[in-house]
Amino acid sequence: MNALWSADLSVVVLIAGVLGLMIGSFLNVVIHRLPIMMEREWAVQCADLRGEAPPVVEPLSLSRPRSRCPKCNHAISAIENIPLFSWLFLRGRCSSCKTPISIRYPLIELVTAALFVFSATHFGLTAAGWGALIFIAALIALTSIDYDTQLLPDDITLPLLWIGLLFNLFGTYTDLNSAVIGAIAGYLSLWSVYWLFKLVTGKEGMGYGDFKLLAALGAWLGWQMLPVTILLSSIVGAIVGISLMVFSKHSRQEPIPFGPYLAAAGIVALIWGKPLTQAYLGIAL
């Protein structure tokens, strides 16, 4: 497996699991704060264009201020911020005002840890394994942000694209030519669908963030993985969309974010892309 260094499987699982819980905790901060930071930046830009003073708000970054309860403003202590276990210990409630804490926080930590463990055992402690952790973490953050806000921030999609090209500079997942063509083809394929849909219906079927996300997936996986990635994301998206309309009376006019399905398909393609592509080509031919 060309491991960077060898280690017992149990050690790999432990390291990946603990790292996944810690990164998952940080992703919760990114998911909550990054859209707010973006909105504040837009507000400053709009005020500047209007020649007005920017709105006065409390400084906010991914590290400052300390996390706190949105209800009572109780600052979260270090012991209350232990990934997963603190939520269980607090029984899903703020220690001060007893306001329920969303179960999504421990779920994101748990999912991140599980995917990190699976990736580490699949790729081993190799460059591909460490890269997969970056890839998975970014896609988890993008999935949740897009689900909440229907935004795919450039602050994540664009670095993800460049990091993918950097890894493939050394042929980690595919050769550099395939990665560059994958980035171009990924962007242009959804860009073409967007404009075709807009010309036919007069409506926007997806956002520019989706183009950039598929370009990033192409940069990591190569152009050869794009057909199966698009196919998987479209099938899952169609199933979820139809289910929402049938079972939850989701309006046809209400948009459904496509980013989560692209992200899920990207993770599947990273791990099982080659056999899936071979099976797809076998069926197509």
Structure at a glance:
With 285 residues, this protein is an all-alpha fold. It is built from nine helices and no strands.
Any overview of this molecule?
The chain has helices at residues 9-49, 85-89, 104-123, 127-149, 154-168, 176-201, 208-221, 226-247, 259-284. The radius of gyration is 21 Å and the shape is globular. The chain contains 9 helices and no strands. Residues 1-6 have low confidence and may be disordered. With 285 residues, it is mainly α.
Distance between the termini: 32 Å
Strand count, sense and barrel status of the largest sheet are: none
> How many individual helices?
9
Order of helices and strands: HHHHHHHHH
How much strand?
under 5%
Q: What would you report as the Rg, rounded to the nearest angstrom?
A: 21 Å
Shape: globular
Low-confidence stretches: 1-6
- Total strand segments: 0
Helix content: 55-70%
SSE-based structural type = mainly alpha
Q: Keywords, please?
A:
disordered N terminus; globular; mainly alpha; 9 helices; 285 residues
List the helices and strands and how they pair.
Blueprint: H1 9-49, H2 85-89, H3 104-123, H4 127-149, H5 154-168, H6 176-201, H7 208-221, H8 226-247, H9 259-284
Helix pairs in contact: 1-3, 1-4, 3-4, 4-5, 4-9, 5-6, 5-7, 6-7, 7-9, 8-9
